[in-house]
Specification:
Length: 398
């Protein structure tokens, strides 16, 4: 098989790119995507918080695939950028003129011994797995006090604010039910602080204080003993590294994440990255070695947060530059690193943190101060963003 443009991944990035390319008049496009279900993953936080249902987060892949695009329902197994070929699990090979790489990330449970076993016990969960998000709410709803441990890696993950949101929504529920006063709520993260943009970090620090959360920074989860309900953290201090074990009654975690193996093993991976991110120019999103390859979304090494909001701004840049490359023109579209983290800090409150490569606030909502917790921003998260996603973003309209 040969296609002028091949897209690896039929998630947020891949479908957005395919739709935009079709609107731009490109007719020979193939999308390699094995799943027949398409998820709007940002709502999994609200599923885990008892605010939404899992069924509201999913639709069939057929329903979102742009008309006129060939859907190859299979897994990418190998990329040979020198030969401009992608091999798929069935054994077939697809050649391309241009390639867009956006398969999303792989949950690397094996990087923390005992972690995957832990989330399959009755006492632990993770909103990063569709089937486990409803379990998170059941654990939170039934909890009557003790140690509630929420953990997040300090390494790059998709939606890095999501582990915090899980803690805030749980704390809000327990505050309303009277359970919070009987709870030792610990948020342990490998990051050095609550958030990298000072203006938003100040607000989030207030949220932590309001709920009485014991926030522990530079705490990287390294092992879990599900039988003892104990999580071991490596703590980095100016004096060196130590280890500490925390026993828990309930546990929520975000697993470490990395590029899929076929990316890590390919010539497209950044050799300096231990996670195998695709190496791109941070502004044009073109591969640093292979000019016919572009990448966006969670899998590329652009130094910004791995969020759907970033994809929304990356997609038009990739499409504009890919079309310029098709026509032999100079690449002029530029991505400025825009990303957004909608922090649900309570039922009915959300802080919309928007920023760019400079790590300064980059507000895009007119006439509204989004640097504080707001009810209207909660409505945006709960209703507005999902509607925009299904009806505009995936259709290449926004």
């Amino acid at each position: 098989m040969h296609h002028r443009i091949v897209i690896i991944g039929g998630g947020s990035a891949g479908i957005s790119i395919a739709a935009r390319l079709r609107r731009a008049g490109q007719n020979d496009i193939a999308v390699i995507e094995p799943s027949d279900i398409h998820y709007y993953q940002p709502l999994w936080t609200l599923v885990g918080g008892g605010v939404s249902s899992l069924s509201h987060t999913r639709r069939s892949e057929t329903s979102v695939m742009p008309k006129g695009v060939r859907w190859i329902q299979d897994k990418a197994a190998e990329i040979d950028p020198g030969q401009r070929q992608v091999s798929i699990s069935s054994g077939s090979t697809i050649s391309y003129d241009f390639l867009v790489v956006c398969p999303g990330l792989e949950l690397a449970w094996d990087m923390v011994p005992g972690l995957e076993d832990a989330v399959h016990t009755p006492f632990a969960s993770s909103n990063y797995v569709a089937e486990l998000a409803p379990k998170t709410w059941e654990i939170v709803r039934k909890f009557r006090g003790g140690t509630a441990l929420f953990a997040s890696p300090g390494t790059p993950i998709k939606c890095p604010g999501a582990p915090q949101k899980a803690a805030y929504l749980a704390a809000d529920h327990w505050q309303k039910t009277g359970t919070l006063s009987n709870t030792d709520l610990i948020f342990a993260t490998g990051a050095g602080g609550i958030f990298g943009v000072p203006e938003f970090a100040k607000v989030l620090s207030g949220v932590i204080e309001r709920y009485g959360i014991d926030a522990r920074f530079s705490h990287e989860l390294v092992e879990v003993d599900p039988g003892k309900r104990a999580a071991t953290f490596e703590i980095t201090t100016p004096e060196g590294k130590t280890r500490q074990s925390i026993t828990y009654d309930i546990f929520h975690t975000a697993p470490p994440q990395r590029a899929p193996k076929f990316i890590r093993d390919s010539q497209l991976a950044d050799p300096a990255s231990p996670f195998g991110w695709v190496s791109v120019d941070r502004n044009t999103l073109q591969h640093t070695v292979y000019p016919e390859v572009f990448s966006l979304g969670d899998v590329c090494n652009a130094p910004t947060s791995k969020t759907g909001a970033a994809i929304r701004k990356e997609a038009p840049v990739v499409v504009a530059n890919l079309i310029s490359a098709l026509e032999g023109k100079q690449l002029v579209a530029r991505y400025d690193g825009y990303a957004a983290c909608p922090f649900t800090t309570a039922r009915g409150k959300m802080l919309l943190a928007e920023f760019d490569y400079s790590l300064t606030p980059h507000p895009t909502v007119p006439l509204i101060n989004t640097k504080k917790e707001r009810y209207d921003m909660w409505l945006l998260k709960r209703f507005g963003l999902p509607y925009f996603y299904w009806n505009f973003m995936l259709r290449g309209l926004g």
